[in-house]
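Materials and Methods. Structural model of DUF1488 family protein. The 97-residue sequence of DUF1488 family protein from Sphingomonas psychrotolerans was retrieved and submitted for structure prediction as follows.
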Amino acid sequence: MIPHWRPGMPNRLEIDQASVTDNDLTRQVEFTAELDGDEREFAVKYAVLKELSGDEPDEDALELFERFSDEIADICAEAALQRPSASVVIVDENDLE
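The predicted structure was written out as tokens:
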């Protein structure tokens, strides 16, 4: 389930597109984003991209990340709320429930 906005949730997570990198060794897309005026580090596991797209993100992880960036931003904002002290908010398939 993709989280929906509710009172008390952050406004929009703004992904710094210049920071988006594909770390194929750890099978995740990493990026910096601004959330309520704070810069946070995020990593979205390939499993999340696969769940959203239905495709294995081996060669096109960045393309899938871009295609589903709105959904990913919502999921990351929710994960950041759940893990406010994490130095890197790692988002995996468990965050989709």
